[in-house]
Write a structure and sequence with these properties.
mainly alpha, 2 domains, binds zinc ion
Length: about 350
């Protein structure tokens, strides 16, 4: 009886400390990361606190207390992937992708290294740990889909980025006064408000589109190429703008399935004017099911591709999240208030 409140207090103080350190260090890191990515420069390492085994322990201890569980989960969603990927053996094996085309046996070795770290730190294989933090159940497999004709061919249409973003801000009421009360993560409460930075920064660079969450509910950077003149290119940009919508609407700790679901929802706008995008979505989901089956060892990798795709190598368990996200996006599509729907689904997951 005497120990529980004391343990709760200690768990909360430890959580406060790690959250405060992350809140101080992550935004600057994410801005530097986005700039380096856009410049194709070496990417900065994550702040030490984000990848420390002790940070993961703090998150796990918080999970044991119902009043802290949500914050513990939010912390683990940030920390667990970094703890696994920062392990020296995992990092060395993963880095080989940059210099060589890796083999499927090298992929198996990398996966085994990830599992060793995950079992030591979280008691389960890496894919299980990540899937549960992402909120992604194991998807059923599927047939390998055929390519979609015309998906990657330039079609003379350009995406008007400014107009597209303005329409999204309006539709999802981003940046309106209604947004501020939704920023409810405790880490944000104690800090000085910085009016004016809340919103999206778009960086143009000839790289794969990618979104960087600087501060959940407050600041996102999206890096996009100067031109997006094929359906596939416009899809990729819209998908990342969707991540911006999701992370400006939601406080910290958004599970990956929800993040991807909003990205999918926003990218579906393409389907009105570009019917090939509907077939491409079906194909993408089918492919994610196939890759998830490869990832869990149910299907040989060389039956899918001669070497491991980038996504399997660098982003374990993401495929399961993509599949679950499509079903969630169907639900979010009919929600009258996306922010409220996200809060509801987040609590459920
Ligand atoms: Zn995504």
């Amino acid at each position: 009886m005497g120990e529980a409140p004391c343990d709760l207090l200690e768990a909360e103080l430890a959580l406060d400390r790690v959250e405060a350190l992350l809140a101080a260090e992550l935004p600057g890191h994410m801005r530097a990361f986005a700039q380096a990515y856009a410049a194709r420069a070496p990417l900065p390492a994550a702040p030490d606190i984000a990848g420390r085994a002790s940070s993961a322990t703090v998150g796990r201890r918080a999970l044991a207390h119902p009043v802290l569980a949500d914050r513990g989960l939010a912390l683990l969603r940030v920390v667990a992937p970094i703890v696994i990927e920062r392990d020296a053996g995992v990092a060395a094996a993963r880095a080989r992708y940059a210099s060589t085309t890796p083999s499927w046996s090298a992929y198996a070795a990398l996966s085994a290294l990830r599992d060793t770290v995950a079992k030591a730190r979280f008691g389960r294989p890496a894919r299980d740990v990540l899937r549960s933090l992402y909120g992604a159940p194991e998807p059923a497999s599927a047939e390998l889909p055929a390519d979609i004709t015309g998906w990657r061919d330039p079609d003379g249409q350009e995406l008007d980025l400014a107009a597209t973003w303005a329409a999204l801000v309006d539709r999802f009421r981003l940046g309106s006064p209604a947004l501020s009360p939704r920023v409810s993560d405790r880490a944000a409460e104690g800090r000085t408000e910085r009016p004016g930075v809340q919103g999206l920064t778009i960086v143009r660079a000839e790289v794969r589109p990618r979104a960087f969450v600087v501060e959940p509910g407050r600041e996102v950077i999206v890096v996009v190429p100067p031109h997006a003149a094929s359906p596939a290119a416009r899809f990729a940009v819209l998908h990342e703008l969707g991540h911006a919508v999701a992370n400006l609407l939601a406080p910290a700790g958004l599970p990956r399935v929800l993040d991807e679901a909003v990205a999918s929802l926003v990218a579906r706008d393409l389907e009105r004017a570009t019917p090939v995008a509907i077939a491409a979505r079906t194909r993408r989901t089918q492919l994610a099911r196939v890759l998830a089956a490869v990832e869990r060892g149910e299907r040989p990798g060389d039956s899918v591709a001669p070497s491991p795709p980038w996504a399997l190598w660098h982003d374990p368990a993401a495929q399961a999240a993509y599949v679950a996200a499509e079903e969630l996006a169907d639900r979010l599509a009919v929600a009258p208030d996306l922010g409220a729907a996200l809060a509801h689904e987040r609590a459920r997951i």
